[in-house]
């Protein structure tokens, strides 16, 4: 179930995090966490930094892998892997498939989740299975200006390029 904050707050949230604004990634992540914490949300976001700061793709991939494993250990309901493409999202879920499935996660194929082009379709699918792993090409909360689902881990893999 998705919790929607009051409209004024949701509007401010979207304006502050508008993609067109030049916002430092760490500041953006901290701002998201701060706003979500006010509403008692249980959301965990990990922004894997881009490789312009000297991290190799392999290091960033391993960081993403660890974030997914941490989410599994915390028994998070929804794990979202986000990146525009060619970031290793599918490779990561294939590598961790036995761990994910043995912990009760359903892995949505990219063919399925990439077809969710509207907020209502996304929200409907977020409520269909108890525990799930979803691949997305964009951050759905920013794209559609909706409040995050409770008990969600989002691993941003945009900085990885294979």
Write a structural description.
With 162 residues, this protein is of the alpha/beta class. It has one domain (7-156). It is built from eight helices and five strands; from the N terminus they run ααβαβααβααβαβ. Strands 1-5-2-4-3 form a five-stranded parallel sheet. The radius of gyration is 15 Å and the shape is globular.
Q: Main traits of this protein?
A:
single chain, 162 residues, alpha/beta, globular, disordered N terminus
Task: Give a brief description.
This protein is α/β, with parallel strands linked by helices and about 160 residues long. The chain contains 8 helices and 5 strands; from the N terminus they run H-H-E-H-E-H-H-E-H-H-E-H-E. It has one domain (about 5-155).
């Amino acid at each position: 179930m998705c919790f929607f904050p009051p409209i004024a707050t949701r509007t401010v949230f979207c304006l502050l995090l508008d993609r067109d604004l030049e916002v430092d990634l760490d500041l953006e992540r901290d701002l998201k966490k701060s706003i979500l914490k006010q509403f008692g949300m249980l959301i965990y976001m990990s922004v894997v930094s881009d490789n312009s700061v000297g991290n190799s793709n392999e290091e960033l991939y391993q960081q993403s892998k660890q974030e997914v494993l941490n989410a599994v250990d915390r028994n998070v309901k929804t794990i979202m892997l986000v990146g525009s493409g060619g970031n290793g999202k599918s490779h990561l879920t294939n590598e961790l498939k036995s761990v994910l499935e043995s912990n009760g996660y359903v892995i949505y194929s990219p063919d399925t989740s990439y077809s969710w082009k509207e907020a209502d379709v996304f929200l409907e699918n977020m409520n269909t299975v108890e525990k799930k792993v979803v691949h997305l090409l964009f951050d759905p909360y920013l794209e559609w200006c909706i409040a995050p689902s409770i008990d969600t881990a989002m691993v941003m893999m945009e900085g990885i390029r294979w």
